[in-house]
Amino acid sequence: MNGRTILDVKDLSTHYFTSKGVVKALDDASFELKGGQSLGIAGESGCGKSTLAFSLLRMVQPPGRIVKGSIMLDGVDVAKFTEKEARKKLRWQKISMVFQGAMDIMTPVYTVGHQMMEPLYYHKGIKGKKGREICYRYLDMVDLDTDLFHRYPHELSGGQKQRVIIATALLMEPDVVIMDEPTTALDVVVEARIMNDLKRLKHELDNSMIFITHDLSILAEVSDNLAIMYAGWIVELGDASEIYKDPKHPYTQKLIAAIPRLHMDMDRLEYIPGAPPELTDPPSGCRFHPRCEHAFDRCMKEVPKEYDVDGVLVKCHLYAED
Ligand code: SF4
Prior knowledge:
Elements: E1 5-18, E2 21-34, E3 38-42, H1 49-56, E4 64-73, E5 76-77, H2 83-90, E6 95-98, H3 112-124, H4 128-141, H5 158-170, E7 176-180, H6 188-205, E8 208-213, H7 216-222, E9 225-230, E10 233-239, H8 240-245, H9 250-257, H10 297-301, E11 306-309, E12 312-315
Helix pairs in contact: 3-5, 4-5
Bound molecules: iron/sulfur cluster.
């Protein structure tokens, strides 16, 4: 599977049709994911990261819907799937997801094992000893004692619950696993351990992963490629270490400068003035222009194109040849 394009997303747009107007949560998102590769998606809250993930899983709830674009998964456009097809052929089998705050979604009245076996039975008809053995294997893979299979969620720590959820997302051997803020609400020590485990699993299992977080420093560790999102747009896309070392989009530059570092003068910590825009009425031209210190006339009038700058795609007028 390694090296082959597994996911090819083109011009994907998802809008929410609310009583206050149309929220353009995701506009014209395009990217590719190869087998065994990981893509990190970063940006402030409300920039469209989770909407993108829900769109890939075809789980956008009304009043939201995909209005444009394609999601080619192994050659099939899953954006055209009906709800029934998405349930039968896509979710958990092809793409699975560890949701934000996932450790709170376990049902308190069922054992861990019962909850892990459910997708196996529902999608593959596997139950009994065979199902148990598969669950044990994945519990072991995420560094958990197989004893936990028989316990109830309240008997587990936050870190253990999060690992169970990760094991469950991997059970069906999906092509793509989406991790939406997989370590939020965990302390830094547990967070570091889980991120190390995820790195190891990516190599062991050779499946593709999408990590979503507002914490860029975490993404730099686990991602091959990075997509930086602002106000529903992907504004920079390319090799993670290249973007981290030499960010090109003014928003990415600010985001990276805002990461606190050891030995830095904390009084000089960078921040981005202002707040993300209302997506019912985003700013004209470049959506970042009200907060951008490089903004010029054209930025207010014209939507920037994507420019290839040393192999990194940057949506900014600063890189226009003219
Ligand atoms: Fe700033 Fe203009 Fe580039 Fe937008 S297009 S990021 S406003 S310089």
